[in-house]
Amino acid sequence: MLFLAYCFFTFASYAQSAKPVITKIDPPNWFTRVPDSLLLVHGEHLENTTFTLHNTRARITEQTISPNGHWAFLTFVSAKAQPGTLEVVATNVHGSTTVPYGLSARRSVADQPKGFSSADVMYLIMPDRFADGDKTNDKLANFRDPDDRSLSRAYHGGDLRGIQEHLDYLHQLGVTTLWTTPLYDNSAAQSGQSYHGYSATDMYAVDPHFGSMEDYRALVAAAHARGMKVVLDTVPNHVGPAHPWVEDSPTPDWFHGTAASHIKVDDDFASVTDPTATAARRNILLNGWFADILPDLNQDNPLVAQYLIQNAIWWIESAGLDGLRIDTFPYVPRRFWHDYNEQLHAFYPHLSDVGEIFNKDTHVVSFFAGGRAHTGSDGTYDTLLDTPFDYPMYFALRAALTHQEPMTAISDVLKSDGLYAHPERLVTFIGNHDTKRFLSEPGANPAALRLAFGLLATLRGMPQLYYGDELDMKGGDDPDNRKDFLGGFAGSDSNAFTAAGRSPEQAMMFDWVSQLMSIRHEHTALTCGGEQVLSSNEDWLVFVRDSSHAPVTGCTTATDHQRVLVAVHRSSKPDTLTVGLDQTWASGCRIGKANIAASTSSAEVADKQLKLQMGSDDVLIATCR
Length: 625
Prior knowledge:
Blueprint: H1 2-16, E1 21-26, E2 29-31, E3 37-44, E4 50-54, E5 59-65, E6 71-77, E7 84-92, E8 95-104, E9 122-125, H2 127-130, H3 160-164, H4 167-173, E10 177-180, E11 184-185, E12 202-206, H5 213-225, E13 229-234, H6 244-247, H7 270-273, H8 279-287, H9 302-319, E14 323-326, H10 334-347, E15 352-355, H11 362-368, E16 374-376, E17 379-381, E18 387-388, H12 391-401, H13 408-414, E19 427-429, H14 446-458, E20 462-466, H15 504-522, H16 524-528, E21 530-536, E22 540-546, E23 563-569, E24 575-580, E25 591-596, E26 602-606, E27 609-614, E28 618-624
Parallel strand pairs: 2-8, 9-10, 9-20, 10-13, 13-14, 14-15, 15-18, 19-20
Antiparallel strand pairs: 1-3, 3-6, 4-7, 5-6, 7-8, 11-12, 16-17, 21-22, 22-23, 23-28, 24-27, 25-28, 26-27
């Protein structure tokens, strides 16, 4: 007992007589000509410590230190400082510790985010599953679980250099915007199951399996050189269970609950959209831990909120990004989203962001879209989100094209466009990393997939493609829908990045998609024109896109007025359809040469009527003069 007491006394005495130790600062560097930021310092013996800055005009105006001496919050004012390396000095009665801290110039006006719009085509890549361009990061010496392509939930070796090496493939396909799943460092989890990036253990570092920040900058620069934009997946809702904060939180209310005691989230979005819902019901959505294991960040804590907002700024400035994809959007309070987007858009006027609201109800999805204030159980807010993904259209496309529902399911979604302030911004898609592949949907086949791509290319909004769908890839639910891209890894049976390496079926679908996207890029009516449905029934959908009805300011002028007629026929047998055009946007239309259609399909206008003759499962796209 005397020995234990002596050890405790010795340790306590040491703790009280040690100089400060700094092990990490978030953000790891910052920028001039920006608003005040918050430095989160981690270390030891920080209690009763004073922080100062040397070799700079930047200042620390406030500091708050956690009772255990592990965390310090410093208000950092850098607007008048010059770029360079400064010193952060922590001093207590036992001594001082000095660490360097970088201050960079903010990106020039010409290098600010360009944003994305309905004129773009977005392509989703999971970096670990696309292509392995750097063998040196395939086996990390300090990582427990090695890369193993035979395991569906392990790291497989894909990385940022692998993506950069195949930008020409994306350019050939017609892609203008690249979205990668999160690049946050997940490696502290020591588990290959964090390959997807959604279990962050450090929000200020690139996962070493994917490469480095230098690799990311090189990818962004190479994409920009090809006229492509880059979008980063961000996750302000949660971090991974292996994040150091889980065992040692910067503040007692940094998370909602703890690993030992927390609420399991549910997907009751109506608990927010319903103004009469109770706080207890709403809190399960907003305060619960996603999948019962992902620590839920408390955005009501101003320190957490500022940390997350400036984290987005850091990634944008560090890499030169053009936009953000925001994960699990409805699970975060709308008042936070209002402040988040207000600050980011004030700082980056052309930045675009798209949010995930995984729901088939247009009323639910539009409730979280920006541009209008909506009253819910949490109050009245405008999230200021540029656009959500069009999940209602995703569900309708899958149901209609696999014969589970009539084609009117698609037009029914379009009838709800008035619920959105900006329906033209909606991001349409037929699959992503959270859904089974289209071709693995019951009732799907390559003909149906061709129709799906035809609609993505011609419907209002911005189309988003999921890697490999353009090559007839199949895959069931997660993780089967996240297989490696063919040709991206050593030992692949074929290389679908090249025309010679594609099977006849893959080549047919790739050529179809690239042709469709080329047509889309050629016509302002398709990239940003208004949309009017002319006919919709069990097996047909006919609509016109008209640039003179463009909801996008500056999309077109009177001299380049365009109209494009689109007809989609979903049937195993040829058929004909007559559509009245009087008092429609297509009134007075004279059909030009069809851009795309089966040889057996045709369209003509006579007596104010559009007469369609189409083969089985076909798309017709024709200019309307």
